[in-house]
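Hi, here's the filled form for the chain we discussed.

Project: internal
Contact: R.S.
Residues: 100
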Amino acid sequence: MAKYEPIEMVKSYSGKLCSHSDVYFAKKGKTLYTGKICNPRTKAFSAEELSRQEKFAQARAAVKALTEEQKASYATAFANQKKYSSLQGYMFAQEYAKIS
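And the returned structure, exactly as it came back:
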């Protein structure tokens, strides 16, 4: 679970915010946010969803298998772009695009 720092208007939270599930806290880039899953999924994944999950897993494995030279190449390309906020996200997007 990410460390959460409430904004000045909200100094603290107490109790459950939803009776169905726990609340999660996350940080994406410079944004802190909370969420909850009130109605968890009950139906099976479709073939298209399973295919996307497999591509995601392949892209993660490809990023982990990168050599230091490839990482340095991605770091150079990352410095010249504005779309992605992290090098890891940039590398993942490039590897995912290769799979698709």
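Let me know if anything looks off before we file it.
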